[in-house]
Amino acid sequence: MAIKTLAEMELNVPDSEARKRLTALFDEDSFRELDKFVSTDGELCSVVAGYGTVLGATAYAFAQDVSVKGGAVNKSAAMKIRKIYELAAKNGAPVVAVFDSKGGDINEGMAVLSAYGDIVKASAAISGVVPQIAVVCGVCAGAAAMLASMADITIMTEKAELFMTAPFNTPDGKLAGAGSAANAAKAGVCDILAKDDAEAIAKAKKLVAVMPANNISLAGNDDFAENDADITAAMNGADVIAAIADKNSVVELGADFGTAAYTAIASINWATVAFVATDKAEKLTAADCAKIARFVQLADVFSIPVVTVLDTEGFVPSSEAELAGSVRDCAKLAQVYASATTTKVNLIKGKAFGAAYAAFDSADISYAWENAAIAPMSLEAAKVFMGEEIDASPFNAAALGMIDGVIAAEDTKDAVASAVDLCSGKRVTAPTRKHVNFAF
Question: What is the pTM of this model?
Answer without folding.
Answer: 0.91
